[in-house]
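Format notes (please read before filing issues)

Several people have asked whether sequences and structure tokens are stored in separate files. They are not. Every record keeps both together, in the order shown below: the sequence lines, then the token lines. Line labels are part of the format and must not be stripped during preprocessing.
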Amino acid sequence: MLLRPTEVVANREKKSVTSVDVFGVVRGAASYHVELGKGKTPKEWQPVTVANPTPTDYGLLCRLEGQEFAKSRDWVVRISARDAQGRTKTAQVSISIQ
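Then the structure lines:
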């Protein structure tokens, strides 16, 4: 199973973040979902997508609404996946929104 966040893009209107796009690679997973954690070492994770069975190569995994990022400067985006045998794997990327 291959999970890799490849790019995070903050979409802005003037100085405000309107949304954040998360791109990545997901191969060999029966399903995956994306979660968002507040801070540099999150204690809690908020699901931001439902389980998705579609593999992607350098594609858009999700778009996060900009108002979420007003709560903190530092965030971690985590991709969690499960294969057909029930094994799980995660990959994450830290982001800082200014």
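For reference, the curators noted about this record: Residues 2-96 form a domain with the Immunoglobulin-like fold (CATH 2.60.40.10). The mean pLDDT is 93.
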